[in-house]
Amino acid sequence: xxxxxxxxxxxxxxxxxxxxxxxxxxxxxxxxxxxxxxxxxxxxxxxxxxxxxxxxxxxxxxxxxxxxxxxxxxxxxxxxxxxxxxxxxxxxxxxxxxxxxxxxxxxxxxxxxxxxxxxxxxxxxx
Length: 126
Fold this sequence. Notes:
By secondary structure, the chain is of the alpha+beta class. Helices cover about 20% and strands about 35% of the residues. The protein has one domain: Nuclear Transport Factor 2, Chain: A (Roll), CATH 3.10.450. It has 3 helices and 4 strands, in the order αααββββ. It has a 4-stranded antiparallel β-sheet, covered by helices on one side. The longest helix has 14 residues, at about 30-45. The chain starts with 17 loop residues before the first helix and ends with a strand.
């Protein structure tokens, strides 16, 4: 049985986000990068999160939050960020579970191209 991709695309992890996590392919759109970053958090592939964060804004170190499990991603809105754009915005909700109970992170993330590749620039948490 194929493992479903955490990003919610409906595809398998092996065919969807894993090639991006393994750095075999690059995201073609800001949404694809957003989904792969969410999946990276969900799968513990923090190396992908670090690698796809704009170096100007990237923290020195990224650590997974102990006891936090990401359970669902919902894309709310996409502005630009297509294969022929240089900037894009993806607004999303990411549901999570902790020992204290469930929660939802809502963010409006900005993406830009750097060296021809999509990278996460920054985001506003709602």
